[in-house]
Specification:
Layout: H1 16-22, H2 25-28, H3 32-48, H4 54-73, H5 85-97, H6 110-146, E1 151-156, E2 159-165, H7 166-191, E3 193-194, H8 210-216, E4 221-222, H9 226-231, H10 234-260, E5 268-269, H11 288-311, H12 326-349, E6 351-352, H13 354-359, H14 368-377, H15 382-399, H16 408-414, H17 428-434, H18 443-456
Parallel strand pairs: 3-4
Antiparallel strand pairs: 1-2, 5-6
The structure holds arginine.
């Protein structure tokens, strides 16, 4: 058992099936850069407080850097017996520099080491996702500008409701991703507390300087309670929740555009290079990327659920169950990262089909609510106005026409306040122009929002 760092008290070799069952090297090797970063910071602190010499620290740092480069180059040998990335790197260091390498694990446990590595990895991953979110916002704002002036039917219950500007539509998603970015920043703040130095669970009797490590690794604070540290995976659950919200936003939009790309809607045109075909039906052009963005949200939601259930019911402090945190973490990040990348590509490449949209924009009585509000402005109570316009919609529907097709007599018969001027609030253009409230689809409001977003995203 001499090859195991914990082999001292063991009388026989580990069963092969236990090695296979307990290993994490097959997936946690992904932490190698962060493990090396954490270890170098730890060694520098050990030198600063005099637990190792400056020369020993230099040997350790050099050895770790070489190991990191070897892993990055793909020439590093991974073996099952070395269980995880932490033991691989430490064992390789000892192979390289001998007894000095045996000092690295002073005042440290894999329990605080692993959570430090995972935090460093997650922090970088969150920053990458934030950059992707920003890129998608830029694509959406560009699309909002490209489609300025276009009017879309807005839906509730997937039924035509009120007209909205296409610019307003694209900016709605910009807002959703802005909330995701703010959730992400908030989550990053709570994550950014140094675990290292908690050792196994109770801290250490050695005179370490945790603030030194925190400064070195750019953590804002040092975790106050060692028992809490080795069991804490809150930051992962929060991160996965942030990712899940992003995946939900992507999935809703993807569903919308799958529908919009149908023959029946024909609202959106996707470039050939972003679609795929059918092996049997020659005419087909399928929105598979959108469907997969919608479908892959399942993985992200699944990852969050896995972590919630994993952590549920775990007593203090470290439990080996926690090794299971990494695969869902990696899976959720990889999924959201590629979905965001492809979503931006789709938004850049797509165009809303103004011809097809405007050809049917007069269907569905999108101006009915505007007409009701016109009555309210004339002093008619809302409930009465609602009833009157409902009656007029019924009449127009029976005749197979628009509200604007009703005669002046029809309007006057419905209510004396409905005089000739009523025509000025009918039709989608008049309806859109009639909006006033803050945050509404009023052209002036939307133009201001677009300009603000351009400034905020550095596009103006
Ligand atoms: N591979 C382990 C993990 O990912 C490292 C920590 C193991 N700690 C222990 N006391 N066995 O959680």
């Amino acid at each position: 058992m001499a090859d195991k760092p914990w082999g001292g008290r063991f009388g026989e070799a580990t069963d092969r099936r236990v090695e296979e069952f307990t290993e994490s090297i097959s997936f946690d090797r992904r932490l190698f850069e962060h493990d090396v970063r954490g270890s170098i910071a730890h060694a520098q602190m050990l030198a600063k407080v005099g637990l190792i010499t400056d020369d020993e620290c230099r040997q350790i740092a050099r050895g770790l850097t070489e190991i990191r480069d070897e892993i990055a180059a793909g020439t590093f040998p991974f073996v099952l017996e070395r269980e995880d990335i932490h033991m691989h790197i430490e064992a390789a260091l000892i192979d390289r520099i001998g007894d000095v390498g045996r000092k690295l694990h002073t005042a440290r446990s894999r329990n605080d080491q692993v959570v430090t590595d995972v935090k460093l990895w997650t922090r970088d991953a969150l920053d990458q996702v934030d950059a992707r979110l920003k890129a998608l916002q830029v694509s959406l704002v560009n699309a909002a500008a490209r489609h300025e002036g276009m009017i879309l039917p807005g839906y509730t219950h997937m039924q035509r409701a009120q007209p909205v500007l296409a610019t307003h539509y694209f900016l709605a998603y910009v807002e959703k991703y802005e909330r995701d970015r703010s959730r992400l920043a908030d989550c990053r703040k709570r994550l950014n507390v140094l675990p290292l130095g908690a050792a196994a669970l109770a801290g250490t009797t050695l005179p370490i300087d945790r603030q030194h490590v925190a400064d070195n690794l750019k953590f804002d604070d040092v975790a106050r309670n060692s028992l809490d540290v080795s069991s804490d995976r809150d930051f992962l659950i929060e991160s996965l929740f942030v990712l899940t919200m992003i995946a939900e936003h992507l999935a809703g939009w993807a569903e919308e555009w799958v529908i919009w790309s149908t023959q029946e809607f024909s609202f959106v045109a996707l470039p050939d290079k972003l679609c795929t075909g059918s092996s049997i039906m020659p005419q087909k052009k399928n929105p598979d990327v959108l469907e997969l963005i919608r479908g892959r949200s399942a993985r992200v939601i699944g990852s969050l659920t896995t972590l919630l259930v994993l952590v549920k019911g775990l007593p203090l402090a470290y439990n080996r169950d926690l090794q299971e945190d990494k695969e869902p973490l990696f899976s959720a990040f990889d999924t959201v990262d590629s979905c965001l990348d492809l979503a931006a590509l789709l938004v850049d490449g797509a165009s809303l089909r103004g011809d097809r949209i405007s050809a049917r924009i007069d269907e569905g009585y999108l101006d009915a609510t505007t007409l009701m509000e016109y009555l309210i402005k004339q002093g008619v109570p809302q409930r009465t106005g609602h009833e009157i316009v409902g009656h007029l919609v019924g009449l127009a529907e029976k005749r197979g026409g628009r509200l604007a097709d009703l005669s002046e007599d029809d309007f006057r018969a419905a209510h004396p306040k409905l005089d000739g001027a009523v025509k000025q609030s009918l039709g989608v253009v008049n309806a859109v122009n009639a909006f006033q409230s803050y945050g509404s689809t009023a052209p002036a409001q939307v133009a201001k929002q677009l300009a603000d977003w351009k400034t905020r995203l550095g596009l103006a």
